[in-house]
Specification:
Layout: H1 3-20, H2 26-31, E1 45-48, H3 66-76, E2 79-82, H4 86-99
Parallel strand pairs: 1-2
């Protein structure tokens, strides 16, 4: 089994454990040390975090887990994180402005600037 496959197998359960522990009572959390996020020496791919359309967390009166997942992904150092949410919408708006002649010439905006995600 390759090193990247082993690291991926360690990261997914660790993220699930951390997310499951968010709602744990403070007394139980004091008894056990907090789980640590596994880290990688080398990046194994590019990842995009996308919110599911069903928004399951709203029924539990929770906020979207998107920001928390992005923090964990960044701290793991296993993936290059690409933004396909609000950041993509802002980039598309900038391209539309540039396409309409609203931007200064020579700006670093245009096709071919986005990195493809290996994982979503």
């Amino acid at each position: 089994m390759s090193r990247s496959a082993i690291n991926t197998q360690r990261i997914i359960p660790a993220l699930a454990a951390v997310l499951a522990g968010i709602g744990a009572p403070a007394a139980r959390a004091a008894d056990k040390p907090a789980p640590e996020i596994p880290t990688c020496d080398k990046r194994i791919g590019t990842l995009a975090v996308a919110e599911p359309e069903n928004k399951w967390w709203t029924a539990l009166n929770l906020e979207s887990p998107e920001a928390l997942l992005k923090v964990y992904v960044n701290q793991s150092k296993c993936f290059t994180l690409v933004d396909r949410g609000k950041g993509l919408a802002a980039a598309q708006q900038e391209r539309a402005l540039a396409g309409g002649g609203e931007m200064r010439a020579g700006a670093n905006i245009g096709k071919g600037q986005m990195k493809a995600a290996d994982y979503v």
